[in-house]
């Protein structure tokens, strides 16, 4: 799993902005899910859902708050079923992992260069680039695992999370590339709820000097330097071929988009290389045929779509998780499914394939029949979504909603405004049909379905007005000698 990797930055998903040969290899040798969605598009909640198979309001993690590791999780159940369980890399759940025979994690977000990771014994600095380091540690776990047991391993990368720091090799690969702009980069937000105008995750307005990797004036230090980095610049001086140019307005906007995307995509290129490394290792060590390999990300991401970066909103780019699955002994190579899957389904899937019981309080459903190419006739035709972190880091308004195979209905409950989209006629979600007289019946049906789904998943507005305090940051234990 990676952090914030949008499906539309994977060439197997039709990316217009990059090439990911190793992830494509997974798609070519396995199954691509075209409708895998996150139930709350933000890091910590999505991770809690993946571990528990439950919505945020059931696992107690609606925002960046501490995960209670005493609760039922997929790794505990797999451990009880005789599996060796391990977790390496980004955890970001505020409490230390439980239910893993081995774990070694980044504290909070962790850092890109020479990352610190900590385990039960303490912290260590690992020289190198985070994505390489996490892959090396993953391969070490595979080498050292007890060979008389099956294993369950979570290898979680920090990349390509903000502030998108690539290693030098991949930075150079993208340094002079012109990345095509998405068609909705200059969305005027006409006809939409206030939420999209109020958000502070705009590529043109909200990228900071730190995000843009601007070089501070000499002599700045401490708090002053940090303040300098946090400024969202409205003009930037760049140097091209020894000539200095001051960028403003539309010129600066175009430059900001390129600056953001080059770094983001360069981080992904290292992920792609490292996925290849891990697959090569599995293939070379007799683990190809009977190992289920999943590639996913904790949610999607805006790549300038609707003018934004980051996630949170229920729009497609942030809602959609890449989900590629290889298992040669079961999954037909090169297959594609449009069955609606969510991150609640991951835990039940792993349990079923391990031959373990799926607890009845897990809210997802095993994807195994989908992987076999036979989704049951009663497979879900819609799913429920809820995002709470408001105002959060980007002033993104809280909302809940439903996505069906053809439509989406969103309620920003604190400002009591609605949006609805016809995803067939308007896949880019530019036209809010909520108030269209011609759509009245459709909206009514969607609203009924939404109320029904909300009830079915047991959302009683437990966290609607008050959320637990943000506490997913942890202080790592002291560095080991
Ligand atoms: Ca994330």
Write the layout of secondary structure elements.
Elements lengths: L20 H9 L1 E3 L2 E2 L5 H10 L3 H4 L14 H7 L3 E7 L11 E5 L9 E4 L2 E4 L4 H15 L6 E6 L11 H7 L20 H4 L4 H4 L15 H9 L4 E6 L2 E6 H36 L8 E4 L19 H4 L3 E4 L8 E3 L3 E2 L3 H8 L14 H4 L10 E6 L11 E6 L2 E6 L4 E6 L17 H17 L25
Bound molecules: calcium ion.
Distance between the termini: 30 Å
Low-confidence stretches: none
Number of strands: 17
Report the sheet-strand fraction: 15-25%
Compute the gyration radius: what is it?
22 Å
Strand neighbour order, sheet with most strands: 10-11-1-12
The DSSP helix count reads 14
Bound molecules: calcium ion
What level of helicity do the residues show? Answer: 25-40%
How much is the average pLDDT? Answer: 97
C-alpha geometry: globular
What kind of sheet is the major sheet?
4 strands, mixed
Structural class: alpha/beta
What would you say this structure looks like, in words?
By secondary structure, this protein is α/β, with parallel strands linked by helices. The chain has helices at residues 21-29, 43-52, 56-59, 74-80, 130-144, 168-174, 195-198, 203-206, 222-230, 249-284, 316-319, 346-353, 368-371, 440-456; strands at residues 31-33, 36-37, 84-90, 102-106, 116-119, 122-125, 151-156, 235-240, 243-248, 293-296, 323-326, 335-337, 341-342, 382-387, 399-404, 407-412, 417-422. It is 29% helix and 17% strand. A four-stranded mixed beta sheet has the order 10-11-1-12, with helices on one face. A hairpin with a 4-residue loop joins strand 16 (407-412) and strand 17. The chain is globular. The relative contact order is 0.19. The model has no long low-confidence stretch (mean pLDDT 97). The protein binds calcium ion. Calcium ion binds at residues 3-4, 43, 298-299.
């Amino acid at each position: 799993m990676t952090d914030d990797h949008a499906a539309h930055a994977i060439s197997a998903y039709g990316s217009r902005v990059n090439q990911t040969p190793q992830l494509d290899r997974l798609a070519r040798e396995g199954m691509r899910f075209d409708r895998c969605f996150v139930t709350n598009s933000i890091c910590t909640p999505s991770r809690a859902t993946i571990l528990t198979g439950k919505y945020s309001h059931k696992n107690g993690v609606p925002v960046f708050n501490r995960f209670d590791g005493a609760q039922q999780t997929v790794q505990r159940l797999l451990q009880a079923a005789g599996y060796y369980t391990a977790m390496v890399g980004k955890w970001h759940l505020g409490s230390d992992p439980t239910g893993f025979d081995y774990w070694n994690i980044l504290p909070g977000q962790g850092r890109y260069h020479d990352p610190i990771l900590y385990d039960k014994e303490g912290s260590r600095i690992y020289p190198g680039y985070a994505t390489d380091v996490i892959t090396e540690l993953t391969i070490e776990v595979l080498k050292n695992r007890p060979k008389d047991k099956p294993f369950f391993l979570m290898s979680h990368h920090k990349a390509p999370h903000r502030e998108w720091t690539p290693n030098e090799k991949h930075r150079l690969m993208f340094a002079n590339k012109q990345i095509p702009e998405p068609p909705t980069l200059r969305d005027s937000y006409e006809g939409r709820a206030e939420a999209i105008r109020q958000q502070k995750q705009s590529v043109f307005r909200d990228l900071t000097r730190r995000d843009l990797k601007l070089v501070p004036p000499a002599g700045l230090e401490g708090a002053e330097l940090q303040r300098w980095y946090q400024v969202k610049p409205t003009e930037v001086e760049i140097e091209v071929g020894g000539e200095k140019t001051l960028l403003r307005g539309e010129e600066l906007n175009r430059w900001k988009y390129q600056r953001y995307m080059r770094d983001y995509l360069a981080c992904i290129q290292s992920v792609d290389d490292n996925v290849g490394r891990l697959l090569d290792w599995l293939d070379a060590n007799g683990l190809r045929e009977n190992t289920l390999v999943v590639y996913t990300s904790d949610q999607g991401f805006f790549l300038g779509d609707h003018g934004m970066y980051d996630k949170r909103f229920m729009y497609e780019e942030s809602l959609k998780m890449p989900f590629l699955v290889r298992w040669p002994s079961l999954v037909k190579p090169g297959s594609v499914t449009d069955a609606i899957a969510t991150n609640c389904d991951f835990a039940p899937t792993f349990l079923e394939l391990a031959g373990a019981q799926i607890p009845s309080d897990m809210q997802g459903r095993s994807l195994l029949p989908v992987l076999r190419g036979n989704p049951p006739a009663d497979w879900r035709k819609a799913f429920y979504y809820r995002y709470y972190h408001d105002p959060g880091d980007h002033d993104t308004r809280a909302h809940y909603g439903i996505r069906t195979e053809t439509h989406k209905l969103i309620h920003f409950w604190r400002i009591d405004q609605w949006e609805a989209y016809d995803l067939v006629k308007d896949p880019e979600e530019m036209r809010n049909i909520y108030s269209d007289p011609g759509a009245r019946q459709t909206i009514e049906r969607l609203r009924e379905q939404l109320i029904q789904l909300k009830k079915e998943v047991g959302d009683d507005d437990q966290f609607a007005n008050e959320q637990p305090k943000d506490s997913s940051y942890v202080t790592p234990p002291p560095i080991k000698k």
